[in-house]
Amino acid sequence: MSSQSNHHHGGRGGSDPYVPGHGDASYGVLHYDLDLVYKVDTNRLDAEATLTCRGLADAPSLRLDLRGLTVRAVKVDGKPAKHTHEGGALTVKHPVREGEELTVHVKYAGKPHPVPSKVLGSAGWEELTDGVIVAAQPHGAPSWYPCNDRPDDKATYTMRVAAPPSHWVALAGELEGKHRSGAVTTWSYRQDVPMPTYLATVQIGRYTAVEHEGGPVPVRTLVPSGVGERDLAPTFGRQGEMIAFFAGLFGDYPFASYTAVITADDLEIPLESQGLSTFGKNFVGEDWESERLVAHELSHQWFGNAVTLARWQDIWLHEGFACYCEWLWAEETGHASVAEEALRHHAGLARKKQDLLLADPGPELMFDDRVYKRGALTVHALRRRVGDEAFFALVSSWIAEHSGGSVTTEMFEEHAQAAAGDDDLSDLFGAWLHERELPELPEEPAPREPTHRGLRGLFSRS
Question: Considering the domain 1-121+139-198, what is its CATH architecture?
């Protein structure tokens, strides 16, 4: 597996060995403008996409990812362009020059469906019983729009979706307005914070919005019939409180609002997108398992969405921190202390096979539960080593410095080392990230009194 991203280095083809055949490193996309017309009953999509691109290296042509849909026409800077479309690759026969901008317009249509992969499973546009979800991580974005599908290429978006008036349309952005014309309602959204392709999403269903109090930004849950505000109270009803808590630890919530979508269908797992997360109806409950997952997806807005991996091998930077946030929320609410959670999950990992390299798990294991738990334990080991004050300061500055950008494990190691000063952290990171054997859990300091809400006390003084 390559350990270096090709971002800005030119070269053809994919820039990430975990998702071969996706992405083109010779250019970046600055902005996507998407116009979609969708018929729910027939799963028919008629669409146009305009991409504002900038050359990062000279190349004879420009390659877009688009799979399972038919291309009707392509224009570059307003003029028809020759192109070929096969195997998910739309090759536009127009030269790319380093530093130059060009506009690519693609008209396309068809019946979208998830992008299959033997190693990664299928991801992307998925029909529900009465609507749609898009769960694109890591390779599903080309199922619904032409894109430069690599995680280190972030762009802003404007998106319009026309759908039946009976259905709500939620996208990864801020709603600018909606208008009805005949048998369709068009929803217009903007995403002004740069977003990688896999975090863009479309959610269509017969939803009603429940607004939640207690957050520094608007927080809402879109619910299907049969799910009421009372059902949400123990878990989704606490999302405003969760945002306030995490913002107190890591810095301001990075987007203008937060939406959770609960589909009428059961889903295997929940998934975050930028400013929005998707849950199946099976995740509505009063138990800790539901609350834990709500906190996990929400924390991804900092770890994964504001600050995003440049290469899929660094997925622990998303999942390890999100899993650690579950433990922080557990302690905040009195469910369990972080120390108890760390002890429990360390014991669980010790019973499993020791064949995972956290800093480069390989595509087969990138979503293995061990990445999540060992990632969280790495975060905890760092906290134990540098102490609470230095730890939360370095995580906050990590988010602040890289918000809207792309990062690697090496960048995090350097950032933590700079914060730790004379204490050489290479042994800690070497053991947890770059060796397979599970390290011992660092000893906990003598317990502070009181442990409950101890974190908030730590920061109310600063």
Answer: Sandwich (2.60)
